[in-house]
Design brief:
Blueprint (H helix, E strand, L loop, with lengths): L4 H40 L7 E5 L6 H7 L13 H9 L4 E9 L3 E8 L2 E7 L2 E6 L4 E5 L8 E3 L12 H12 L2 H4 L3 E5 L2 E6 L2 E6 L4 H12 L8 E3 L7 E3 L24
Helix pairs in contact: 4-6
C-alpha cells in the first residue's frame, strides 16, 4: 500500500514541530534550573552573607549573645536570618525598652537598642533592686543607689514587683517629682495606704492612683514654704490639705520596720 506523499509530508512536519516544541521546553526548563542554581549560589555566597553586625545603644545588654542564639553571626547568609525573632528576644530583656534588628543589604545587620535607666531603688523581700520608670525591675543590687529616690516594699518579692499596684504607684510618684525633690524622697506603705517623705515632710498618698498628679500637687505645696513638721495630704489630689505641726504623725515618726541603714539591714 502506498501513502499519499502529501500525507507523508504532513506527518513529517508535525513530527518536526513536536520535536522543536519539546526542545524549546527543555531549553526553557534548563534555563530556569540554571538561573535558580545561580540565584541559590549567590544567596549562599559571601557576597550576600553577614559581614558586619553593628549594635547601637547598649551598655547593660549583651546583644551579640542574643543575636548568636538566633544564628545571626558573621558568615551566615542574609536571606535565612530570622531578624524578627531576634528582635522579640531583645525586647524581652529587662534593660531593653525598645529594640530594632534589621538587615542592611548586602552584608550588614544593624541593631538599635533603647535601654531603660534606673529611676528608683526599691527594697523588696529579697533585697534591693534598681527599678525603671515603668516599674520594670532591672537588676538586684546590694544597696540602694545614693542618687535615686527609694521605696520600701519588703513584703513584696522582686519577681512580682512590676505587677504590684503599690510598687507601680510609688515609682510613678517618685518619678513625677521635680528632680530637685527626687533625690532624698522615699515611699512606703503606711497605716492608711501609701505615704512618702519628701524634703523632710510626710506626704500622705493613700491608694496608688493618680500618683503623678499627687507628686505635682505635693511639690507645689512644698514650694510655698511650709512650716517644719507639717503634713501634706494628697489622697485626693484635687483637694489637698496641709496639717500644721503636732496635728499628726511626722516624717520622723515613720514605722521602724520601714527604716534601714541603706544596705537592707535594720538599724
Amino acid at each position: 500500500m502506498t501513502i499519499d506523499p502529501r500525507l507523508e509530508d504532513r506527518r513529517r512536519r508535525v513530527a518536526e514541530d513536536r520535536a522543536r516544541s519539546n526542545l524549546t521546553r527543555l531549553i526553557r526548563l534548563l534555563a530556569v534550573v540554571a538561573c535558580g542554581a545561580v540565584a541559590a549560589w549567590v544567596l549562599q555566597s559571601p557576597f550576600l552573607s553577614v559581614g558586619q553586625i553593628t549594635v547601637l545603644g547598649t551598655s547593660h545588654v549583651d546583644a551579640e549573645a542574643i543575636l548568636a542564639a538566633h544564628d545571626i553571626v558573621e558568615g551566615r547568609p542574609m536571606v535565612v536570618l530570622d531578624v524578627e525573632a531576634a528582635q522579640v528576644a531583645l525586647g524581652q530583656h529587662p534593660w531593653v525598652a525598645e529594640a530594632r534588628v534589621a538587615r542592611s543589604w548586602p552584608t550588614s545587620v544593624v541593631v538599635e537598642v533603647t535601654e531603660r535607666t534606673p529611676a528608683v531603688s526599691v527594697r523588696f523581700a529579697d533585697g534591693w533592686s534598681l527599678v525603671a520608670a515603668d516599674a520594670v525591675v532591672l537588676q538586684s543590687t546590694p544597696a540602694p543607689d545614693p542618687v535615686l529616690p527609694e521605696a520600701d516594699f519588703s513584703s513584696v518579692d522582686s519577681e512580682s514587683g512590676a505587677d504590684d499596684l503599690d510598687v507601680i504607684g510609688a515609682v510613678d510618684f517618685l518619678v513625677a517629682l521635680p528632680p530637685e525633690r527626687r533625690g532624698d524622697a522615699s515611699v512606703r506603705v503606711g497605716e492608711e495606704g501609701l505615704e512618702a517623705t519628701v524634703a523632710g515632710f510626710l506626704v500622705r498618698l493613700g491608694r496608688p492612683f493618680e500618683m503623678a498628679d499627687k507628686a505635682v500637687v505635693a511639690a507645689e505645696l512644698l514650694s510655698q514654704g511650709l512650716e517644719p513638721g507639717s503634713i501634706i495630704t494628697v489622697v485626693a489630689p484635687t483637694s489637698p490639705a496641709v496639717l500644721g505641726p503636732g496635728m499628726g504623725r511626722t516624717a520622723d515618726e515613720a514605722p521602724e520596720e520601714n527604716e534601714s541603714n541603706g544596705d537592707g539591714s535594720e538599724p
